[in-house]
Design brief:
Length: 226
């Protein structure tokens, strides 16, 4: 699998391009602020043809460039229905202070928007990705798993050493702990985590060192005895 990415814009949001190999079709994950040029550069470098944009959630720093990226390539955007309204109303996901800065920003939905659901299996660009609904950062947050390759695109659910904030509209701390317990803790330790911000990590490293995963562990429920 080919995975290339870059941190986009002032928010340094990780945008990923994923394909089976160079010269093939691909998907784009989370094209954030001013991501168009970076996406185009990766597509040229690896000779890729995008077939879809996948969004881990609807916050402005992850969807800023979704409409121009989709429009230029005539591809659909996929997002969970609970966050779809943020595509055209980004201020609804912002804090009061951020609304003063970005409240006048106008975004629009791409022409073709498709909705994600928990457990859905996406077969796009020769890839198989499983959708996990992981609310807590936002109501419609999702992560994408490539099970055969043990890779998790975690969005703002899980970072190296931390987790996504829960103090914005739609965020909820007990809910994100439940998402971590049900969707992250069961994964193998060697699962590579590619987060929405910051460096990559592994489930094993986070299980051993991330205080939030340790706090989430009781929410995972009892384990089966030997």
């Amino acid at each position: 699998m080919l995975i290339a990415g870059f941190p986009a814009g002032a928010f340094q949001t990780n945008c990923y391009v994923v394909a089976p190999a160079s010269g093939e079709e691909c998907v784009i994950i989370d094209p954030g602020q001013d991501a168009v040029d970076g996406v185009d550069e990766l597509l040229r470098e690896h000779r890729l043809k995008p077939v879809a944009v996948l969004l881990t959630h609807g916050h402005l720093d992850h969807v800023w460039s979704v409409a121009p990226v989709c429009g230029a390539r005539d591809v659909p955007a996929w997002i969970h229905p609970d966050d779809r309204h943020l595509l055209s109303d980004p201020a609804a996901g912002l804090s009061a202070g951020s609304t003063q800065l970005f409240g006048g920003l106008t975004l629009s939905e791409p022409d073709d928007v498709r909705e994600l659901s928990d457990g859905a299996e996406l077969r796009l660009a020769g890839l198989e990705l499983v959708v996990d609904h992981t609310p807590g950062h936002t109501r419609g947050s999702v992560s994408f798993r490539a099970p055969g390759d043990e890779i998790l695109f975690s969005g703002d659910l899980l970072f190296a050493g931390s987790i996504g904030r829960t103090d914005l509209p739609g965020g909820d701390y007990p809910t994100i702990l439940r998402s971590l317990a049900s969707k992250c803790l069961p994964l193998p330790d060697d699962t590579v985590v590619l987060p929405g911000h910051g460096p990559q990590t592994t489930i094993g490293r986070e299980r051993a060192t991330n205080p939030y995963l340790k706090e989430a562990a009781p929410h995972a429920g009892p384990t089966r005895g030997i």
